[in-house]
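thread: overnight batch results

M.L. [08:02]
morning all. the overnight job finished for the chain we discussed friday. pasting input first so we're all looking at the same thing
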Amino acid sequence: MRSSPKAATVVVLGGYGVFGSRVVRSLVRHDEIDIVVAGRNRREAERFCAGLPAARVHPTALDSGASDVADRLLTLAAAVVVDSAGPFQRRDQSVPRACAEHGIHYIDLADDREWVCHIGELDSVAAKNDVLIVSGASTVPALSTAVLDGLLTGLERITSVDVGISPGHRAPRGLATVQSILSYCGHPIPAFIAGSHTTENGWGGLTRHRYPEPVGSRWLSNVDVPERALWPARYKTLETLRFRAGLEIGALHLGLAVLSGLVRAGLMSSLVPYASSMIRVADALNGWASDTGAMHVEIAGIHADSRSVRRRWTLSAERGNGPQIPATPAALLAKKLLGVPGYAPTMERGARPCVGLLSLAEIVSEWRAFAIRTQLEEEAIAIRG
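M.L. [08:03]
and the structure it wrote out:
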C-alpha cells in the first residue's frame, strides 16, 4: 500500500546492488516517491528492503533480460526506471526500448562506450511518447561532463583534457564491472590526440598522478569510456583527450599492465576469463589498502583575455563513500524528472547520453551528507618564446 496516492513509482533494476542500493537510499528520503527494488533474487531484494520504510519500498523479482519485462514494468505502474543491472555490453536495448514505447522515463548507470553512444537510436520513439531515455547517468559521462562544462567558464577554447579516476581498493568490486574493464585491456580503444581520431591501447599509457592527501600518488592507465566518442564532437576546439583510471595497489595495477601487454602481443586473447580469480586476489589484499578514492579533470585552454590557463578539479572520497559518486547522477535525474520539491524539473525529452542534463552544482549538492570533497585550482601557463 502506497504512502500517498500522489507518489510516483520508480523501479530500480539491480536495486539491492552496489550502486542501485545507493540510488534507492537517495530516493527513499522523498515522500513523493515510491520505490520498487527489483532484481533476479527476490530474497536479496527483501533483505535489503527490510531496513527501509516499508510503506514506500517494495521488493520484487524482475529479470531485465526476460521477454515480459515491458508487461512487468506496466504492471508496476513505473513512472521512471533506473537501470543499474550491468554489464550493459552484454545486453540489448529491450528495457530502454520498452520504456520508450510505453511512456516510461528510463535512466541507466552504464559506462560502456557503445551502449551509451547508441542510446540515441531510440530518440524518435522516446520523443513521440514524451519521455526521456538517458544512458550514462553515472561518473562517466554525466559527472565528468558536468565538471568539464564548469571548467570551461570564461574560456574561448579548450586545447587539452586529462581525466583520471582511482577508486579506493576496498570499494566493492562487482564481477560485471571487472569483466568490463578486462574486456578492453590490451586491445585498441578510440583516442583523440593532436586533433585526430586514432587508437591507443587499453590499460596502456601508464602514468603516475599525485592526488591530495590522504590519497597520494596513484598509477593510471588508459580506459575505454563514452567520453572518448562524445567529447571530440561536443567540444569543437578540443585537440587532445586523455582518460585514465587506476588501482590503488601499485603492484596490482602494474601486474594488470603486464598482462595487458601479453594480450597486445597476441600471447593471450582476453583477460575476461580471469576476472573471478583477479577479484579473489584483490579481496585478499583488502587489509593492505584503503577505502579512499579520487578523481581529477584537468584542462588547458585560452581565456577570453587571451591568457593561457590550466584548471584542475579534484575530488576525494573517504570512509568508503566512493560508490556514492556513480549513483548520484541517476538518482538526481529521477528526482528532476518527477518534479520533487527543491529540484529544478527537467523537460528534456528524447533519447541521449547523460551529457548537459545536470550541472556540477546540482551533483555536488547531493553529497552534503558524505565524506566527499572537491577543490578547484587555476594557474597561468607560460608560453615559450
